[in-house]
Design goal:
CATH architecture: 3-Layer(aba) Sandwich
Bound molecules: NADP nicotinamide-adenine-dinucleotide phosphate
Structural class: alpha/beta
Order of helices and strands: EEHEHEEHEHEEEE
GO molecular function: dihydrofolate reductase activity; NADP binding
Number of domains: 1
Pathway: Cofactor biosynthesis; tetrahydrofolate biosynthesis; 5,6,7,8-tetrahydrofolate from 7,8-dihydrofolate: step 1/1
CATH topology: Dihydrofolate Reductase, subunit A
Helix content: 10-25%
Family: Belongs to the dihydrofolate reductase family.
Number of helices: 4
Catalytic activity: (6S)-5,6,7,8-tetrahydrofolate + NADP(+) = 7,8-dihydrofolate + NADPH + H(+)
Distance between the termini: 19 Å
CATH class: Alpha Beta
Function: Key enzyme in folate metabolism. Catalyzes an essential reaction for de novo glycine and purine synthesis, and for DNA precursor synthesis.
Largest sheet: 8 strands, mixed
Length: 169
């Protein structure tokens, strides 16, 4: 059986996912959920998002462990000398690589360019709707093809309300 191809993202009310290479909110519970959901699985990321993740987690000593990272870049000489990290040079190559190492679920975790290229291929969408309107330069693409809500759960942290949606088709 093929692994499921899922997108995991947090999006503001006005469609923003990032600003100047940063996520414009800090919701610990959502980050924790990301860690738990992707643990033991395979994550595909664009090179920019990978470098963000690496910076965030290397300050604590290591990249998110216990998961594979497949990184997409156009740079032929881009090297990542870390365990369970694989560099690919197209989205299709990244999906093929992920399928070759993952049995269960592949998570596409950003950024905007990766989401735009994969939204039409994804089987599932885990979307945290952050109930804020924020400025941003990275926008989530149209996801109207996901019409079926599998689950929906609203939470609040430090005055920020957010809803975890799981969408299928
Ligand atoms: N809210 C969220 O859930 C969330 C999650 C992740 C990221 N973000 C935000 O998203 C923003 C980053 O998004 P982004 O679009 O700028 O960057 P990105 O998608 O993370 O990475 C873009 C890079 O990926 C590589 N790439 C993309 N498509 C490719 C293809 N078809 N073939 C080969 N390489 C390809 C290129 O790398 P090279 O330049 O090396 O060629 C490109 O510059 C940030 O603001 C970040 O905070 C938000």
């Amino acid at each position: 059986m093929q692994p499921r191809l899922s997108i995991i993202v947090a999006v503001s009310e006005n469609g923003v996912i990032g600003n100047k290479n940063e996520i414009p909110w800090h919701i610990r519970e959502d980050l924790r959920r990301f860690r738990i959901m992707t643990e033991g699985k395979t994550v595909i990321v664009g090179r920019t998002t990978f470098e963000q993740l690496r910076q965030a987690y290397e300050s604590r000593g290591k990249l998110l462990p216990d998961r594979n990272h497949v990184i997409v870049t156009n740079q032929k000489d881009y090297v990542v000398s870390l365990p369970k990290c694989f560099v690919c040079h197209s989205v299709q190559e990244a999906i093929n690589k992920a399928k070759s190492i993952e049995k269960d679920e592949i998570f596409v975790a950003g950024g905007a360019s990766l989401f735009a290229q994969i939204i039409q291929k994804a089987d599932r969408l885990y979307l945290t709707k952050v109930h804020m309107v924020v400025d941003g330069d990275a926008i989530f693409p149209d996801y109207s093809r996901f019409t079926r809500i599998i689950s929906e759960e609203t939470h609040e942290e430090k005055g920020i309300r957010f809803t975890y949606y799981t969408f299928g088709q």
